[in-house]
Amino acid sequence: MKFTGKNVLVTGASKGIGAEIAKNLASYGLKVWINYRSKIEEAEAVKEEIEKAGGTAAIIKADVSIEEEFINAIKTIVDSDGEISYLVNNAGITKDKLALRMSVEDFTDVINANLVSTFIGCRESLKTMSKKRFGAVVNISSIVGEMGNPGQTNYSASKGGVNTMTKSFAKEGASRNIRFNSVTPGFIKTDMTDLLKDEVKAEYEKNIPLSRFGNPSEIADAVAFLLSDHSSYITGEILKVNGGLYV
Ligand code: NAD
């Protein structure tokens, strides 16, 4: 795949889907900034794997739901590389509970971690990418942001917000040649879905037309496409990668 840009920041990249996105983008020759919040050893393991495969990576600590930390992370990258070409807003959390038992704190924690962080990333990258009149951002949303899910009123609100916000950023960024798209994964095999009970997983699998959970690499491929030159006329798109579960 062909990329005009030279570097990328992937948030929450020390494990799961983020780690796979980081490794995949490094394989195309991009310098990858691996963001982590607390476990440096996991981020170092991803960096090591990238370097062993001949790629280039750096590690950057930030809790991306905290404005100052996310802004500083982007500033560090621009100071080091002279630019940030691509951003993947991948960091996210769940705090599932039926709405009747969900506190406002459970709700706002997830909104801050998933939606506010993505807003900060989009806004800051728009500012800095505007200087070069080039850039692309992919926001990792969720199928749940499209169809809703019991026990996930907070998460579905955050991811639904990411989808429509992506479209608004796409409209603001287009005149500066900066593209914003989102990917909505279905159920993907990571620690996040490991939290689900086996019977719940089996029930979901029954309803997925491709009859299985997805692999993180299948999300990473969609992200690479949406950042690459091959999608140069695609912006404001919400790309479903869900095995046909929601079409
Ligand atoms: P994961 O829990 O394995 O990894 C998430 C990563 O994000 C972790 O490393 C975590 O430390 C990091 N993170 C969370 N909040 C952060 C913050 N404020 N600052 C910095 N890092 C932070 O989860 P995953 O399954 O790999 O999920 C990645 C993304 O994909 C999330 O946005 C998630 O909502 C989305 N998603 C996952 C699935 C799935 O089935 N796994 C489905 C749809 C969408």
UniProtKB/TrEMBL annotation:
Residue ranges the record marks as coiled coil: none
Keywords: Fatty acid biosynthesis, Fatty acid metabolism, Lipid biosynthesis, Lipid metabolism, NADP, Oxidoreductase
A UniProt-annotated Pfam family: adh_short_C2
Catalysed reaction equations from the record: a (3R)-hydroxyacyl-[ACP] + NADP(+) = a 3-oxoacyl-[ACP] + NADPH + H(+)
Lineage of producing organism: Bacteria, Pseudomonadati, Campylobacterota, Epsilonproteobacteria, Campylobacterales
Stored InterPro entries: 3oxo_ACP_reduc (IPR011284), KR_dom (IPR057326), NAD(P)-bd_dom_sf (IPR036291), Sc_DH/Rdtase_CS (IPR020904), SDR (IPR050259), SDR_fam (IPR002347)
Residues in the signal sequence: none
Described purpose of this protein according to its UniProt entry: Catalyzes the NADPH-dependent reduction of beta-ketoacyl-ACP substrates to beta-hydroxyacyl-ACP products, the first reductive step in the elongation cycle of fatty acid biosynthesis.
Protein known as: 3-oxoacyl-[acyl-carrier-protein] reductase
Record PROSITE patterns: ADH_SHORT
Provenance organism: Arcobacter porcinus
Top EC group: oxidoreductase
Family classification: Belongs to the short-chain dehydrogenases/reductases (SDR) family.
Keyword NADP appears in the UniProt entry: yes
Spans through the membrane: none
